[in-house]
Structures are given as structure tokens and as C-alpha cells.
Amino acid sequence: MKPRKKEKIFLTQSYFKYPLPEEMLKELSEELKDINRYPSGGDYIKLRQVLAEYVGVNKENILPANGSDEVIEIVTRAYKGEVLIPIPTFSQYEASADRGRLSKVLVNCLHNGVFSLNYSAEQLDKASLVWICNPNNPTGTRIPREKIMGILQRAKGMVVVDECNYEYLGETVVDLIDKYENLVISRSFSKNFGLAGLRLGFAISNPQNVKKLAAFGQYFRVNRMAEKAAGKVLKYLDYYQEVWEKMKKVRDKFVRQINELEFFAYDSQANFVLVEFKNKKETERVWKYLKEKGIYTLAGWENEFSGLDNNFIRFTIGIEWEMDKVVEVLYDYAKRS
Amino acid sequence: MKPRKKEKIFLTQSYFKYPLPEEMLKELSEELKDINRYPSGGDYIKLRQVLAEYVGVNKENILPANGSDEVIEIVTRAYKGEVLIPIPTFSQYEASADRGRLSKVLVNCLHNGVFSLNYSAEQLDKASLVWICNPNNPTGTRIPREKIMGILQRAKGMVVVDECNYEYLGETVVDLIDKYENLVISRSFSKNFGLAGLRLGFAISNPQNVKKLAAFGQYFRVNRMAEKAAGKVLKYLDYYQEVWEKMKKVRDKFVRQINELEFFAYDSQANFVLVEFKNKKETERVWKYLKEKGIYTLAGWENEFSGLDNNFIRFTIGIEWEMDKVVEVLYDYAKRS
Q1: Could you tell me which residues come within 8 angstroms of residue A297 by beta carbon, excluding any fewer than 6 positions away?
Q2: What is the mean pLDDT of chain B?
Q3: Which of A3, A10, A308, B17 would give a disulfide with A88, using CB separation of 3.0 to 4.6 Å?
Q4: Using CA atoms, how far apart are residues A335 and B148, in angstroms rounded to an integer?
Q5: A5-51, pLDDT tens digit by residue?
Q6: Would you call A180 helix, strand, or coil by DSSP?
């Protein structure tokens, strides 16, 4: 894809920025004539089979939902008590806890440019629900498997590992769902398969947990188009894998280039990169400068994240020419100031 | 439309059984290429404007949701306490109360073939949430406006009028949302516009109530295709109105024909008709006989309704040839027994 003249560049929401497979869209459009009919609803047997096969588990291990936001909402309602949240992180863990009027413990895990999950034994004893976002949003940080296992072993409550960027990270703890009764994994088709608009997320856990969680969700929570789309995108896994590899190259190049300037970019295993600036004033200046050039990014002062302060901007990784343009603009900015 | 040979007839779920406007489907298919992008989310400003214009209110009066099931879920979470439910009725009022572990009072309103809302003053004093389904599902009964106003005046809690069959009934209490602070109305695009598969419902109330309810819903609760479809179907209102009139004629003819047999069909203002049989044994016999002939219907022993006993079958009103076939099969049944 080539840039159109003066095209605006949206790097706010972290969605799949490449075109969807044309043949897949054609197949999906044929499903539209049946949207007068309800989704399968309830057990969503076929959809669960499709998702289970992709993940490598049984359909009894899968609970489909209206985006992974609904997974977050459902687990929060199912495991009421005290919610343990590592910050900075994705805002919806806190939002769902607030909707349920649950008590929250926000644990600052970002120190001197390093995000490191550091829940204490006491915190893990008390919490009914422990969040791990892997890779963490917005830092993009990989959480080591041993650390997740340590938390699973120690926690008295449920541990939810948000793997909505699994396809970019390439690591999962799905193989541990039988070993740890308190493990729930959250996945999504939004960012990696380009179905953000249709809303398709799902929980993975042991059958007992899945049954319990299902009781907290509505009957028709996943719409018919999302239901049909899952199987269709998976037929094009090769294409998606190519795009994921491409995105990673663009991302890693962007991190290197940003660090060559005076700014600090966090290493990322997701499709976004967090950049830290000297102070709020500079962050605002950069954010505005980018915006004037038609580049929209997500700053710490917006509501997307819990506990992210005003020295940060998160850049979604777009198409290569978009990121080249961002670097060019930031280079101009650095030269001017 | 003509019957295909041995075609099965599904009269279980009450969905829009006519073809959707082709031009509308074509326009909608063009939106598929953007499903990699998130829905508007949060305030859903454009969607609320479209819905508000259709209803004849302001966008501040509208809360879109993932089907009217989600409206039911959201109001139940927002107005916790004791839930007053008239039976027999749609099962989701009870299901949402159960999910929230709220106490329920089920009030039997069906006596001697007549459904009549008969909440007592004491019940209306105590309830935090009062349900009115108008027309009632599965009886199809119109609830008189004066009765709704009486309940609104007397109730200490919130009163929710489920108008998901408004387009068939042609009566609404939308004009009362400023007069009664405790009024919330629920609507849907499932049954009347044929968008059941996309999930689009919405609440209508005063801006204060809408703001409160919004805090109980997720940010991305309505998917992008549902969001885009609302405005598109409304461009074909003439077509839909024709279909609604056609359906009503088929329905009323069906009611007459059923009553000419030995069975008792309730007068209906919706797109379904409830039929009462002598006893459970006969109901089962009829239900099985229909099924053997490829006609699928919803009996009292299924989970679709609260407080419907085993003497009932609900028939969704399908295309005319389908209903003619049902009558023919029931005529054969009556002759044989």
C-alpha cells in the first residue's frame, strides 16, 4: 500500500491495519442475507469447536463472548472480592471492577523504564481475582512463564491471563489450564485477525470454570456475523501469519529508530509501542506536533489505560510507510527543539 | 415466496421471516471491509442520532445495546432490589434477575384465557424494578396505556416497558418519558427490521436515567455492523411497513382458523400466536405431530418463557404458505383424534 497524499495516520486504537483477505470478505458477505435469524446462542457449539481447534483444546474449555471486554466483565462478576491489577495496564480490568463496585488494588509495576510484575504474597493471598496482561498493554512487555506459574501457585483466587496479543507474542499458558484450577485465559480475534468491529473474544479454562462463567453471560452474547467469521478467517491463517511477521519487523525497526532519537521506546511484543518522554510538557508538545501533521496517537492522559502517567504516548504499529512518516516527523521535531 | 418441497418450517424463534431488502444488504456488505476497525463505542453518537430520529426523541434519550437482552441485563443491574415479573412472559427478565441474585416476585396474570396485568399496590411499593412486556410475550396481549400509566404512578421503583414488538402493536409510551422519571422503554431491531443476527437493542428514557444505565454497560457493546445497519434498514421503512401489514393479516387469519378447530388461540398484537390445549398430553401430541410433519414450534416446557405451563404452544407467524401448512396439519390432526 502506498500513502495517499496528506492521508491521516491513526495510531490510537490497536487494531489490525492490513487489508482483510478479499475471498474471506466475499464469503462473509454471503452470510448477511441470514442476519434476520438469531445467532446460535447459549452453547455456541460450532463456534466453540472452531475456536477450540485453533487453540488446541476441547470445546468445553471455550467460552465465546462479545469481545474480550466481555470476558473481562464476566470474570469480574464471577469472582467478586478484591481485584489485583498491575499498572500501567489496559483500563478495562479496572472499569469492570468499578462497574461491580469491587475493591481494587493497583500495583505499580513500572520502575525506571522496566515493567516487572511484582505482586506480594500478601496481595496474592487476599485477592479474589488477579490480572496478568501478557504482553502487557501499553508497555508491550512479555511476562515470563515462570513468573505466571509462580503467581498461579501462590494466588488463592482466580488468575486471568489476558492473551489478546498472543498471536504477536507467540507464547501461551493454555497448556496449564488442567494443572492450575485457578487459571482463566482471555483471547480475542480483534487485533490479530482484524475482527475488532465484529466483537469476538473468548475465555479458555477448565470445563468447570467455563460452566460457571457461562452463567454470568447472556444467551445471545456473540452476534451471528462474528460467529460465522471465526472459521472463515482461520482458513487464511497463512496470510495472517505473514502479516504478523511483517508487523513485527516494522515494530522493531520503529523501536530502534525512536531510540536513536532522544526518546525512550519500550521493547514490545505486541502491535503497539510505548514511548516515554522527559516530562508532561514535552509529551504534550510531541503529541500536538504529531497531530498537526495528521498523526493521531494515544497519550497517558486519555482513558485507555490504568495508571499511565502523562509522560507517555502509545503508538499502534501501522503499515510501514505510516511508521516511517512518524519517525520522519519525530526527527523534524527533535531537530527543531 | 413459494414453498419448496418438504421444506421444514421453523416457528420457534420470533424473527423476521421475510427477505431483507437486497439493496440494503448490498450497502451493508460494503461495510465489511472495515470490520478490522473498532465500533464507535462509548457514546455511539451517530447511532444514537439515527435511533432517536426514528423514535422521535433526542439522542440523549437513547442507550444502544447488544440486543434488547442487554437492555434487560443493564436495567436489572442498575436497579437492584426486588424484581416484579408478570407471568407467563419472556424468560430473560427472570434470567437477568437470577444472574444478579435478586429476589423476584412472579405474578400470575393469566386467568381463564385472559392475560391481565394485576400488580397489587403493595407489590408496586416494594419492587425496585417492574416489568411490563407490551404486547406481552408469549400471549401477544396489548397492555392498555391507562394501565401502564397507573403502574408508573404507583410504582416506587423503575418501570421498564419492553416494546420489542412495538412495530407490530403500533402503540408506545415514549411520549411519557419526561412525565414519569421512573420510565424506561426497551426496543429492538431484531424482530421487526430483521437484524436479530446482528444484535441491536436500545433503551429509551430521560437523559439522567440513560447516563446512569450507560455506566452499567461495556464500551464496545454494539458491534460495527449493527451500528451501520440501523440507518440502512430505516431507509427501507416503506418495505418493512408493507411486510408488517402482511404479517398481521397472516396472523389474524391464523388465529381465526385455529379457533375454528377445537384449539384456543390468543388474540395477538405481535408476530407470534399462543395456542392453549386441553392438557399436557394433548399439547405433547400436537407438538410431536407438527414436528413429524417438519413444523417446529415452541412449547411451554421449553426455557423460552417464565411461568408458561405445559398446555401451551407458541407459533411464530411465518410466511403465509407456512401458516396455511400449519393449519392444514392441525386440521388433519383434529380429524384423526
Answers
A1: A11, A12, A287, A290, A291, A313, A314, A315
A2: 96
A3: A308
A4: 69
A5: 578 999 999 999 999 999 999 999 999 999 999 999 999 999 999 99
A6: coil
**Is residue A118 within 8 Å of residue A144, measured between CB atoms?**
no
Cα distance from N-terminal residue to C-terminal residue, chain B: 32
Nearest to A25 among B33, B224, B225 (CB): B33
* pLDDT single digits (tens) A263-277: 999 999 999 999 999
For an interface test with A, the pick among B164, B199, B212, B302 (most A C-beta atoms closer than 10 Å) comes out as: B199
Query: Hey, what's the cell of A60?
Result: 468445553
How many CB atoms neighbour CB A92 within 10 A? 26
Q: What angle do CA B16, B18, B19 make, to 5 degrees?
A: 115
Which pLDDT belongs to residue B6?
72
Q: Quick one: pLDDT band at residue A3, thresholds 50, 70, 90?
A: low
Chain B residues inside the 8 Å CB shell of A94: none
The contacts of residue A88 (CB under 8 Å, 6+ apart) are A109, A110, A115, A138, A139, A300, A305, A306, A307, A308, A309, A312
Query: How far apart (Å, rounded) are the C-alpha atoms in residues A273 and B64?
Result: 33
Per residue in A202-227, pLDDT tens? 999 999 999 999 999 999 999 999 99
HSE at residue A140, side-chain half, CA atoms within 13 A, is 24
Backbone angles phi, psi at B242, to 5 degrees: -60, -45
Tally A–B CB contacts below 8 A: 126
* A36/B17 CB distance under 8 A: yes
Cβ proximity of B199 and A220 under 8 Å:
yes
Q: What does the pLDDT look like over A42-87, one tens digit per residue?
A: 999 999 999 999 999 999 999 999 999 999 999 999 999 999 999 9
B274-277 long-range contacts, CB within 8 A, separation 24+:
B274/B138, B274/B139, B274/B140, B274/B312, B274/B313, B274/B314, B274/B315, B275/B312, B275/B313, B275/B314, B275/B315, B276/B113, B276/B311, B276/B312, B277/B311, B277/B312, B277/B313
CB contact under 8 A, A196 and B99: no
Contact between B117 and B137 (Cβ < 8 Å) = no
pLDDT of residue B5: 59
- Are the C-beta atoms of A27 and A328 separated by less than 8 Å? no
Interface predicted TM-score of the whole assembly (ipTM), two decimals:
0.95
Tell me the sheet residues that pair with A296. A10
Lowest mean pLDDT among A284-293, A301-310, A325-334, B314-323: A301-310
For residues B322 and B253, the answer to whether their CB atoms sit within 8 Å is no
CB contact under 8 A, B196 and A29: no
Q: What is the pLDDT of residue A263?
A: 92
Region of A150 please: left (phi>0), alpha (psi -120 to 50) or beta.
alpha
Are β-strands A312-316 and B298-299 bridged in parallel, bridged antiparallel, or unpaired? unpaired
Which pLDDT belongs to residue B285?
96
d(CA A330, CA A262): 10
